[in-house]
Amino acid sequence: MAYVQKLTKPVAFLLILVMTTFTWGCSTTTNAGRGAGIGAGSGALIGGIIGSVSGSWVKGALIGAAIGGGAGALIGNYMDKQAAEIDRNVEGAEVERIGEGIRVVFDSGILFNTGSSAITSTSRYNIEKLAGILAKYDDTNLIIEGHTDSVGSDSMNQTLSENRAQSVANLLKAYGVSSSRLSAIGYGESRPIASNETESGRRLNRRVEVLITANNELKRQAESGKINL
To answer: Residues of the signal sequence (predicted)?
Structure first.
């Protein structure tokens, strides 16, 4: 039963990536464009499933969703610039470039008080800074993930993770990020990145991740050979 829970939620995120890339591919008028879209969608699905087994599901999904080629290089450059700005300006954020996407990780202890899903007043400024950058680089989709440690019941941790992800999404929206770009999901304690047997491990597991990927418009621009920024 635990295995099903861990697999189901990653598949939900995979479907978001797959439907995005597949829709983009189907709206392209050439056979080559349709093939690229379907291929990217398949790559996201395969990469995500491989990652879920290996323990690096997010990396697998983002790498698998890559378009590649010249268009991929343009998207990668767009993401490089965005990641650099986030790293420079948003305190408390760990920024990682993966494939043609970005993974931004916040320690939940920085954003929330223990057991709470209300973002602390001192952390709102960092979310505001992040929102300003995301608004500038607006041709992206954003998935906000909430994660907890294993202390407490499964149901309590699941609800807490969902509420924390939604709190971050709501604040990003309040600071000007379009709600159409935002998807919030909670994984509870099902996706640890460290051992829950130690306090240091549990702290790493209590986190909120913002995953940034190219939307259909950015992919279209990249295919045309020029990205507007």
So the answer is: none
